[in-house]
Amino acid sequence: MLKGFFNVPVPQNEPVLNYGPRSVERAALKAALESARAQQIDIPMYIGGKEVRTGKTLEIRPPHDHKHLLATYHDGDKSHVTAAIDAALAAKADWENLPWEQRAAIFLKAADLVAGPYRAEINAATMLGQSKNAYQAEIDAACEFIDFLRFNVQYMTEIYAQQPQSSKGIWNRVEHRPLEGFVFAITPFNFTAIAGNLPSSAAMMGNVVVWKPAPTQIYAANVVMKIFIEAGLPAGVINMIYGDGPLAGDVIFSHPDFAGIHFTGSTAVFQTIWKTIGTNINKYKTYPRIVGETGGKDFVLAHSSADADVVATALVRGAFEYQGQKCSAASRAYIPASLWPSVKEKVQRDLTNIKMGPVEDFENFVNAVIDERSFNKLAKYIDAAKADKTVEIVAGGNYDKSQGWFIEPTVLKVSDPHYVTMCDELFGPVLSVYVYDDKKFDEIMDIIDTTSIYALTGSIISQDRYAIDKATYRLRNAAGNFYINDKPTGAVVGQQPFGGARGSGTNDKAGSMINLLRWVSPRTIKETFDPPKDYRYPFLNKEV
Hints:
Blueprint: H1 24-37, E1 41-43, E2 45-47, E3 50-52, E4 57-60, E5 71-74, H2 78-97, H3 100-115, H4 119-130, H5 134-161, E6 170-178, E7 182-187, H6 192-204, E8 208-213, H7 218-230, E9 238-240, H8 245-252, E10 258-264, H9 267-279, E11 289-293, E12 298-302, H10 308-320, E13 330-336, H11 340-353, H12 372-387, E14 391-395, E15 399-400, E16 406-407, E17 410-414, H13 420-423, E18 430-436, H14 441-451, E19 454-455, E20 457-461, H15 465-474, E21 481-484, E22 501-502, H16 513-517, E23 520-528
Parallel strand pairs: 1-5, 7-8, 7-10, 8-9, 10-11, 12-13, 12-20, 13-18, 17-18, 20-21
Antiparallel strand pairs: 2-3, 4-5, 6-23, 14-17, 15-16, 19-22
Helix pairs in contact: 1-4, 2-8, 3-5, 4-5, 4-7, 5-6, 10-11
């Protein structure tokens, strides 16, 4: 990297606040929660720097307290999608011609706003709108979002600094141009940081963006947009719209200036989008960039040499933090028979002590799943497991939607490694365990590798280095993020670039330079200072 000219603050991971009793941050967060619950806000769309209200409003309620109305937001239609595209394209020339340092300053300021005056507000919004406890909100909406913004600025400068060699009399350079058109960002409910990163990473590289957050994340997305605006983001660079997904897709994927999609969501939706783009490929000015992180059926493989306490902790944290609604959550585990009795006892002990309830009570480790649709889906799988004589309910198995969408942390021991809950992505607090013969370690790796279409995260827990080496190689295509002696969740920006392959996405590694490279279209420029004036080469001269 060039020194001096490309001089930006060296990023460091944002420290995680602990929110312990009587701490300053805990008091500030509680005050923000009380303030948010005391009001019902009206959330507009943001198009071309203007707040757009349609009058067609939908409600936002906390998943853990669905009788309480937090906010309403204004639903859009095709006309608003078109307006957002027009606003983005109108802003494009000025934005892409703005010096990179000025773009960087906006997002570095946004990071400082999240770290400082907005920290309690964005965490409280994430807790209430997405039912995350204080710690899960802190590592997401504050720390990870800040890290994305700061590290992406660093990656941007490193990309611009990558220049070719020049021989005598020639100057070669590469211009990392933004894409020709607009980028569509579709973001999920489960991480506020992802909601902030997908549109901002593309915008940072000089692109203009139409952003559609998940309806169940709009409450915190509104705070993200407020932060971008306060940081000085020009009107039209990022336009936030709401509405029906297929409806928006009809407009966006038929537009000639569609240049790329930055997506996190379900595999089925992503495959439909890809198919639609392929069908419309002749309509576009350029071949669109397709970047997506989708589903997972993430595994924990324990070896007979593993420490039972380490295994149990990895399962409880990996499967049940944020109610198993992380893309990387442990949802299937393979435990050797010799270790299972001890692991089972420790998991049952921990789950007996875990408290479940609303996020406002800081003693609750588990909160509600995101909505009624998710609740009903999970309840259906649990009921089917209860009725199946081949399945043992090791822990949990209960659910209640009277106050919120509460699913008890549930552990199922299955006798068939291909039982439905070992294969299907459930996206909730349900962990399926298959107990295997210690001698069949090699065979179980084959089963892990071929059980599902996904390849997002996985882990091996072992004290045997030969077993670790074997699993690391054998499962190299089964997970884009692979963990040794740890749970399969918790990727940190700048440390573990995140993404998977197979049915889990394009593996473009959010939180790395790899991702930002997808949002530029390089142009190579060669300048010759003393160009030739005669077509003839020396070899053409006659010998004397």
